[in-house]
Specification:
Helix content: 25-40%
Shape: globular
Strand content: 15-25%
Distance between the termini: 20 Å
Number of domains: 1
Largest sheet: 6 strands, mixed
Length: 215
Amino acid sequence: MVALSGVNLRVERGEFVFLVGASGAGKSTLLKLLYREETATRGQILFNGRNLGRLHPSLVPHVRRKIGVVFQDCKLLPNKTALENVAFALEVTGASGREIRRRVPAVLELVGLSNRLRACPHELSSGEQQRVALARAIVNNPAAVIADEPTGNLDPDTAWGIVGLLDEINRRGRTVIMATHAQGIVNRLNRRVVALVEGRINRDDRQGGYGHGPF
């Protein structure tokens, strides 16, 4: 089964791109190609000029440090606090204890969780968990943030809070690519919209809305 076919997409540094389409259209597959969770059977995936498909496996972690990823289900470590979950992303890169103590509280303050540093995931609301996941994604100062349905499990008000943070992160210079079914969010922000239909790009609007495609 072919998940994507004939996709030709260029995202410039500092863009905010919504990736939309029906379930099964290929959104998650496309995102996985971007952070080398999957490899393309044909064609090229370039990030900062590097061909991810030809990247030696030992170099993949180094590239991923430049790409923050946020998932719908957060994927937090259940027995670690918010502080420890975010710190872990730095620990695996070999960051010093001093650097971790400086950067982790600062990024948790950015996402509005400076008063929840010692809380474990089960003590946090769904929105707070997603904020921790977002803090973890950006603590390494990545060039790009990829978000795969980050608001899918959230109520509308909480979802807007997460999107507001992604918007702020984008305004600070990071590229943001967000896959979503949230029509209201896409329509209101009026950013670039790339629509997938059956594994192909059906529409690419520089300032678009969700509801102009057949999905």
